[in-house]
Amino acid sequence: MNHPFSLAHLTALECAPPELTYLAAQAGYDFVSIRPIYMGLPNEPNYDLANNKAMFKETKLALQQTGLSVYDIELARINDDIDPLIYEPAFEVAAELGAKHVLSSIWTDDTELGREKFAQLCDIARPYGLTINLESVPIASVRTLKGAIHVLEDVKRENVGLMIDAHHFHRAHDCVDDIKSIPKEWLHYFHLCDAQKEIPTSKEEMTRILREERLYIGEGGLPLKGMLTCLPDDMVFSLEMPNRQRTKELGTFEYIKQCLASAKTFIEKGNTYAVKK
Q1: 185 exposed, middle or buried (CB, 10 Å; 0-12, 13-18, 19+)?
Q2: CA gap 8, 33 in Å, rounded
Q3: Measured in whole angstroms, how far is the alpha carbon of residue 199 from the centre of its chain?
Q4: How far lies 192's CA from each of 30, 32, 141, 167, 224, in Å?
Q5: How far is residue 186's CA from residue 35's CA, in Å, rounded to a whole number?
Q6: What secondary structure letter does DSSP report for 234?
Q7: pLDDT digit string (tens) for 23-72?
Q8: How many CB atoms lie within 10 A of CB 206?
Q9: pLDDT digits over 141-166, tens only?
Q10: Which of 37, 59, 64, 224 has the fewest Cβ atoms within 10 angstroms?
């Protein structure tokens, strides 16, 4: 199986897109997945490339010098108050950097409004050659894989995708067999990570773990083998594995190297990754 790997920005969010690109190339990744959409979350750096022309030029230069490409950008959230048109500058940036995909999630409990805005997002992205990939998130409004599938079936847009995150899949009690029913043309990439098997009972603890305590591939208790057997052999794996403590102990570069090593070992040999002491 020939799986390309992308470094998801959340794994090393302390790195601006240019630095992320250089580190990803040195560590052996094939792509980078960046977050040029600023959401204003606590402790979130602002990498709004559409309004930071200097950083945009530096990112473009880093891509040229390393030969890497941007695989996707994130995160085009949908909620009650956001007009999807605000994301168009980021879509323009994504297209200029060579990205093909945008990650989105739905955070409004108004089902009709969520579908309407998701369809609008697809229409805005289409002229830029971008797909909009819906991610089900257990702390959001569209929480499950089946819920995300229903959204895509309802909006009936050609440039849609379904992005499965291994952590979210397990926390939502999704079933591996449901992956088999997904149209293959919807599956553009997969967020690969591992985490403890026990599912937190509080939203706060689940949020903390997904943002700062994910594990090496094969180290935790997620049903990864079952999920991966349902995916195309050339699936792009975006490694979203933030772990604050390990990054602090190892440094960003060594940590992202071990993330990639754990993924390759697990996929190629089916073994649990031996973490370096």
Answers
A1: exposed
A2: 5
A3: 20
A4: 15, 14, 22, 8, 8
A5: 21
A6: T
A7: 999 999 999 999 999 988 878 899 999 999 999 999 999 999 999 999 99
A8: 19
A9: 999 999 999 999 999 999 999 999 99
A10: 64
Helix (H) / strand (E) element for 194: namely none
Instruction: Tell me which amino acid residue 26 is.
Output: Q
Residues 189, 132: contact at Cβ < 8 Å?
no
Cα distance between residue 94 and residue 36, in whole Å? 8
For residue 253, give the 3-state DSSP assignment.
helix
Q: What is the largest CA-CA distance in the chain?
A: 51
- Kindly report whether the global pTM for this prediction surpasses the value 0.70: yes
Q: How far apart are CA 148 and CA 124, in angstroms?
A: 20
Instruction: Give the residue from 10, 9, 14 showing the smallest Cα distance to 211.
Output: 10
CATH of domain 5-269: 3.20.20.150
d(CA 142, CA 149): 10
Residue pair 29/257 in contact (Cβ under 8 Å)? The answer is no
At residue 70, the 3 state secondary structure works out as strand
Inter-helix orientation angle 145-155/111-125, to 10°: 60
What is the three-class DSSP state of 240?
A: coil
Distance CA(203)–CA(205), nearest Å, equals 6
- State the number of CA atoms in the 13 A half-sphere of 31 facing the CB: 24
